[in-house]
Design a protein that fits this description.
The chain contains 10 helices and 16 strands. The longest helix is centred in the middle third of the chain and has 21 residues. It binds NADP nicotinamide-adenine-dinucleotide phosphate. The site of NADP nicotinamide-adenine-dinucleotide phosphate (NAP) has 30 residues, from helix 1, helix 2 and helix 3. The site of NADP nicotinamide-adenine-dinucleotide phosphate has 30 residues, from helix 1, helix 2 and helix 3.
Length: about 325
């Protein structure tokens, strides 16, 4: 019987339990998939801990790549044997096999392995919308990205460089400076030691940057605000250090006419066509060497709890996957 990670209660990594699951046949608009690689994402820890509440018990994980075993009667865009990837609710990607709606999957082209595809959907689609849609990053601009050596962080700088932009990155330890630099960051600041906002102002002749991409949240919010230039944009897209406190608009936003947004993937890729187009842009960049993916660590599916512990302990420098 296929195995799947289920949570019956919220809590630490130990609540991730491996169970046998029964998989039936797909409904008319569904596909049955054998996962070959599963993406590990910080959001999975929010689902596990209860920061993002869910009705329990529930499977966990949003992202995987694999092969189609069976297609539902109404599904015309996929066939048995196709290589696909997905990064979307319904949760349950931490599984050997499962059924998903056909409209959340994309075709993975030849030349992109399941392992690479499983690192590209969430992190690549996020990077895609962050710098092409939320803030249209242009050649010659310099922006700030927090947690530069992390999963999204590594793809972000490479993509930004490919369009001629520069990125200042922050990291939590000196060891991560080298990793961020290797991924194309022009300047890297260890924000555990240095006041990053002051450093960004120094680097930009006190002007500040036009955009800050902040997946760290609570700990970096005030600094991110203070190193933006007039009419700059704070893109708060995650809460690795905890969710934001309520925003004081008169104090934080009004004086420099700033923009603040809190986006998610689903708001930018709203149907299968948009999803496939967004994924194809990433696959192309990887195929043509504009973005290089180095998988940092592979865990067995049964070791998902260790993967979560490492992610939350900030030990992972780069995209990591679970192997079912
Ligand atoms: N909104 C969206 O559409 C969307 C989509 C995907 C991801 N995200 C968000 O993007 C962020 C990055 O995701 P990821 O999966 O690529 O994770 P990641 O960057 O690989 O890991 C999170 C990083 O956050 C940093 N961090 C800072 N303070 C932390 C703390 N108190 N505890 C733990 N980590 C802390 C750590 O880097 P340092 O040690 O260098 O500080 C850590 O490595 C997350 O916040 C995630 O939720 C949002």
């Amino acid at each position: 019987m296929p195995k799947s990670i289920i949570i019956k209660k919220n809590g630490g990594p130990e609540v991730l339990e491996l169970h046998d699951v029964k998989i039936g046949s797909p409904g008319p608009n569904e596909i049955k998939v054998t996962n070959h690689a599963i993406g590990l994402n910080y959001i999975d820890t929010y689902h596990r801990s209860g920061l993002y509440p869910l009705k329990l018990p529930i499977g966990i994980g949003l992202e995987a790549a694999g092969k189609i075993d069976e297609v539902g009667s109404n599904v015309t865009e996929f066939n048995k044997g196709d290589n696909i990837a997905y990064a979307s609710p319904p949760l349950g990607a931490y599984s050997q096999q499962r059924i998903i709606p056909a409209n959340v999957a994309v075709k993975v082209p030849n030349g992109i392995s399941h392992e690479i595809a499983a690192t590209l959907m969430t992190k690549g689609l996020t990077t895609n919308y962050l710098l092409t849609k939320t803030y249209k990053l242009r050649a010659g601009e310099t922006v700030l990205f927090h947690a530069a050596a992390g999963g999204v962080g590594q793809i972000f700088a490479q993509w930004a460089n490919s369009i001629g932009a520069k990125v200042i990155g922050t990291v939590g330890s000196d060891e991560k400076i080298k990793v961020a630099r290797e991924n194309g960051y022009a300047h890297v600041i260890n924000y555990s030691k240095v006041d990053f906002a002051k450093e960004v102002l120094n680097l930009t002749n006190n002007k500040g940057v036009p955009a800050v991409f902040d997946g760290v949240g609570k700990k970096t919010f005030q600094g991110s605000i203070s190193c933006l230039k007039v009419r700059g944009m704070l893109i708060s897209f995650g809460n690795a250090s905890g969710p934001l406190d309520p925003v004081n608009v008169p104090k934080d936003i009004q004086p420099r006419g700033l923009y603040l947004t809190r986006p998610s993937i689903g708001q930018y890729f709203t149907n299968r066509k948009e999803l496939q187009a967004g994924a194809d842009q990433i696959f192309e960049k990887v195929k043509f060497g504009k973005i290089k993916i180095r998988i940092f660590k592979r865990y067995k599916l049964s070791d998902a709890k260790y993967a979560h512990a490492d992610l939350e302990a900030r030990k992972l420098t780069g995209p990591s996957i679970l192997i079912p």
